[in-house]
Amino acid sequence: MPRAQPLLIAGCLLAATAGAWDGDGELRLLFTGDILLSREVRREIDRTGRFPWEGFMGLFRQASWVAGNLEGAVGPAQDCLPGNSASPCFAIAPNLIPLLAQAGFRALGMANNHALDLGAPGRDATRKALREAGLEALSYEDSPVFLRLGAHTVAILALSIVPDRQGARVEVPSVPLRQKLRLARGLADLVVVYMHWGSELLEWPDTRQRQAAEWLIRNGADLIVGHHPHVVQAPECLLGHPVFYSLGNHLFDQKYPATKRGLIADCRVRDNVLRCGGVPTLTPAGSAFPELMSAGDSGAADALKACPVKLAPALAVNGYSLDARAIDGQSGYVIEGARAGVRPWRSPVLPLVSAEAGRLAGAEGPEFLFTLERHHSSIDGEDGVRPYVYEARPSGLVARWRGSALAWPLLDAALLPGSGGLLCALHRRDSFLALQPGAEGARTAAYRWNGFGFSGVEDPGVLARCRALLGSD
Q1: What is the DSSP string of 295-355?
Q2: Which is it for the CA torsion 104, 42, 193, 18, positive or negative?
Q3: If you placed Cys at 389, which of 66, 104, 382, 400 could pair as Cys (CB 3.0 to 4.6 Å)?
Q4: Phi/psi of residue 41, each to 5°?
């Protein structure tokens, strides 16, 4: 029988995730498109001595949180990796990074095809420079990032489906991305996907963007904000959610007329409802520095006017509202419990993969927290995804079931909605008893909580619903 063990209070939280804004009124999030600090942008800064965002600081100060997509990596140009000659290398001087903080940015996206222009050392140097400037680095590896802004917890997932200099990109759909979305959906009331995708200079979303956007929304995204095409692609309301396919360039040196126009996604939450519009920008000829245009010059507000999103509350277990925080220098998240405005406990750092709440023993049973966590096991000798079941008590989370990977090596698992506590699992086909790495494909299984663990359920109808839930049809 698994041993119950309380989770004790952890150390200090990462200050950057707490957010500077803690007002009780409207939450306002701004997202810009592509930002370049190399080539002609750097030359214009050096030549003129001007500040690139001198016309934006008032707008940015009015916002609760501002993010942009940073194209390039910190380091010298001689460190650029070999690559496709059609893809330039953007090396950023480290002394330019503090300008972003001075402008009012709170976070910069690193999930794009230029983040590895200078290899892993350049990526690490960029993250370090951003952190030293007080800026959050948004990467796929660290997603979701949880922000507590006033009464809201916002989860940001940053990802790129455009191959970087080493050919790496995120697949949509994929099991890891579905898990990140499930974790974000469970522990935040607003889920934002900050997305690098699309075709350069194409002024409308391509088929792959639309397909990816639909999948992301169906798997928990409230808002999608895109970049990479370097031109504005008109936003639209898709499945009842705002999608900014491309914000175009924000600070960039391209000279085509369409690349001179940009859009800032302007999204606000009031009374638990998200509404988005757009702030247009225009970069004058002969310059790379953008200027604000009047709101009437953008159709974004009209396109999204009838697209409010009612925010869903984050997880609650046994009367405790749960949210997550990262810890500086550690991999994983801390879960905090709150009741009646008081946060009486927080867990140690957990290597969370996903998190859900449910009545595993049926509608009349107690509420539990079901998580997937990544742990090493001496049983199979692997670092793998393991299921955990927790009970929320006044002293904190107590583990009721810990670490067994059920009947087969586990890829994913999720509670089946409306089933009274059934668990769907996606397994590798190789067996624990005799590992067969060459075995192809995956198998779907269903389980029911028995109070001490999980028992298999053989029901064709349930298995069909599980395959649909886990995308294993």
Answers
A1: GGG-SHHHHHTT--EEPPP--EETTEEEEEEE-TT-SSEEEEEEETTEEEEE---B-EEEE
A2: negative
A3: 400
A4: -65, -45
Cut 0.85: pTM above it: yes
Task: Please tell me the predicted confidence (pLDDT) of residue 218.
Answer: 96
Q: Which of 287, 235, 283 is nearest to 262 (CA)?
A: 283
Q: In a 3-state reduction of DSSP, which class is residue 463? A: helix
SS3 of residue 58 by DSSP: helix
Model confidence band, residue 441 (pLDDT cutoffs 50, 70, 90): confident
Give per-residue pLDDT as tens, 85-128.
568 999 999 999 999 999 999 999 999 999 999 999 999 999 99
333, 184 Cβ separation under 8 angstroms: no
Contact, 354 vs 219, CB < 8 A? no
CB 372 within 8 A of CB 386: yes
340 Rama sector, left if φ>0, alpha if ψ -120 to 50, beta otherwise: left
Helices (runs of H) and strands (runs of E) counted in the chain: 8, 31
- Name the residue type at position 322: L
Ordered by where they begin, the domains of the chain are 15-310 (3.60.21.10), 351-469 (no CATH)
Residue pLDDT, tens place only, 455-472? 999 999 999 999 999 987
> How many CB atoms are closer than 10 A to CB 440?
8
Dihedral sign from CA coordinates of 215, 221, 227, 228: negative
